[in-house]
Amino acid sequence: MMTMACEKDEDDVLASFDCHNVEPSYNLEIKAILNRNCAISGCHNSSSQAGGINLGSYMAAEAESSKARFLGAINQLSDYEPMPRSATKLSEEDIKLLTCWVDHGSPEN
Asked: What phi and psi, each to the nearest 5 degrees, are found at residue 57?
């Protein structure tokens, strides 16, 4: 599998991970990360949809994961609104799982 990396400028680089042998699925890892940090009341759940973003179901999260803003916000790159808002940046492990999930095509199972 390829390693995700996207340079915007010298100081603004998307986290790069070796996703070989790291194949998270929505149901086993990603749903819990999103539900704990993103798809919460007032943010990106199916009722709130802050910024028009819904991460409250697999179909919604999978559709959003293909957009640059998904990983850009999670990595808190300068051209994106840092997420989660008003909270600590996600752990390196959670960012790795989300990045590898996207890298592997955002599988459900």
From this structure: -150, 165
Give the count of alpha carbons within 13 A of 7, CB side only.
3
CA distance 80 to 104: 23
In the chain, what percentage of residues exceed pLDDT 90? 81
Enter the pTM of the model.
Answer: 0.84
Q: Answer positive or negative: Cα dihedral of 87, 88, 94, 96.
A: positive
Quick count: other Cβ atoms within 10 Å of Cβ 66? 10
Q: Cα separation of 78 and 13, whole Å?
A: 10
Tell me the longest C-alpha to C-alpha distance in the chain.
38
**Count of beta carbons in the 10 Å neighbourhood of residue 95:** 19
Question: 35: how many CB neighbours lie within 10 A of its CB?
Answer: 13
Nearest-angstrom CA–CA distance, 78 and 31: 26
What is the rounded average pLDDT of the residues 8-26? 76
